[in-house]
Amino acid sequence: MLKSWLAKRGYGSIEDLARIAYKRGDPIFVNKFHPRPTKNDTDLALAIGAVETIGWALIDRQSEGEGLQRFVSLTFRRR
Length: 79
Fold this sequence. Notes:
alpha+beta
Protein backbone atom coordinates (compact mmCIF):
# COMPACT_ATOMS: atom_id res chain seq x y z
CA MET A 1 0.00 0.00 0.00
CA LEU A 2 2.76 2.44 0.91
CA LYS A 3 4.71 1.45 -2.21
CA SER A 4 1.77 2.25 -4.52
CA TRP A 5 1.06 5.51 -2.64
CA LEU A 6 4.68 6.63 -3.09
CA ALA A 7 4.75 5.58 -6.74
CA LYS A 8 1.67 7.69 -7.51
CA ARG A 9 3.59 10.68 -6.19
CA GLY A 10 6.73 9.98 -8.23
CA TYR A 11 8.78 8.25 -5.54
CA GLY A 12 10.11 4.72 -5.77
CA SER A 13 12.45 2.68 -7.86
CA ILE A 14 12.92 3.62 -11.50
CA GLU A 15 11.66 0.17 -12.55
CA ASP A 16 8.38 0.58 -10.64
CA LEU A 17 7.79 4.07 -12.01
CA ALA A 18 8.56 2.93 -15.56
CA ARG A 19 6.16 0.00 -15.23
CA ILE A 20 3.37 2.29 -13.98
CA ALA A 21 3.97 4.76 -16.83
CA TYR A 22 3.96 1.91 -19.36
CA LYS A 23 0.69 0.47 -18.06
CA ARG A 24 -0.82 3.98 -18.05
CA GLY A 25 0.01 4.31 -21.75
CA ASP A 26 2.45 7.22 -21.50
CA PRO A 27 4.41 7.74 -24.76
CA ILE A 28 7.45 9.25 -22.93
CA PHE A 29 9.00 8.39 -19.56
CA VAL A 30 11.44 10.83 -17.91
CA ASN A 31 13.36 10.13 -14.70
CA LYS A 32 15.97 12.04 -12.72
CA PHE A 33 18.29 9.24 -11.57
CA HIS A 34 20.88 9.76 -8.81
CA PRO A 35 23.65 7.15 -9.27
CA ARG A 36 25.77 6.20 -6.28
CA PRO A 37 29.25 7.70 -6.58
CA THR A 38 30.87 4.50 -5.28
CA LYS A 39 29.25 2.25 -7.90
CA ASN A 40 31.02 3.76 -10.98
CA ASP A 41 27.71 3.97 -12.88
CA THR A 42 26.98 0.24 -12.65
CA ASP A 43 23.69 1.04 -10.89
CA LEU A 44 22.87 3.46 -13.71
CA ALA A 45 23.51 0.78 -16.34
CA LEU A 46 21.41 -1.74 -14.41
CA ALA A 47 18.55 0.75 -14.08
CA ILE A 48 18.61 1.56 -17.81
CA GLY A 49 18.63 -2.15 -18.64
CA ALA A 50 15.71 -2.86 -16.30
CA VAL A 51 13.62 -0.06 -17.82
CA GLU A 52 14.42 -1.20 -21.37
CA THR A 53 13.23 -4.75 -20.57
CA ILE A 54 9.81 -3.30 -19.66
CA GLY A 55 9.42 -1.95 -23.19
CA TRP A 56 11.03 1.49 -23.18
CA ALA A 57 13.90 2.67 -25.41
CA LEU A 58 16.44 5.21 -24.14
CA ILE A 59 16.45 8.33 -26.33
CA ASP A 60 18.33 10.87 -24.20
CA ARG A 61 20.77 10.87 -21.27
CA GLN A 62 22.15 14.06 -19.70
CA SER A 63 24.51 14.09 -16.72
CA GLU A 64 24.69 17.10 -14.44
CA GLY A 65 26.51 17.94 -11.23
CA GLU A 66 29.42 16.24 -9.49
CA GLY A 67 29.90 13.93 -6.53
CA LEU A 68 26.85 13.60 -4.31
CA GLN A 69 25.09 16.35 -6.30
CA ARG A 70 25.35 14.36 -9.56
CA PHE A 71 22.23 13.16 -11.34
CA VAL A 72 21.36 11.84 -14.77
CA SER A 73 18.20 12.85 -16.61
CA LEU A 74 16.96 9.84 -18.55
CA THR A 75 14.32 10.08 -21.27
CA PHE A 76 12.70 6.96 -22.68
CA ARG A 77 10.06 6.39 -25.37
CA ARG A 78 7.86 3.39 -26.03
CA ARG A 79 9.15 0.80 -28.47
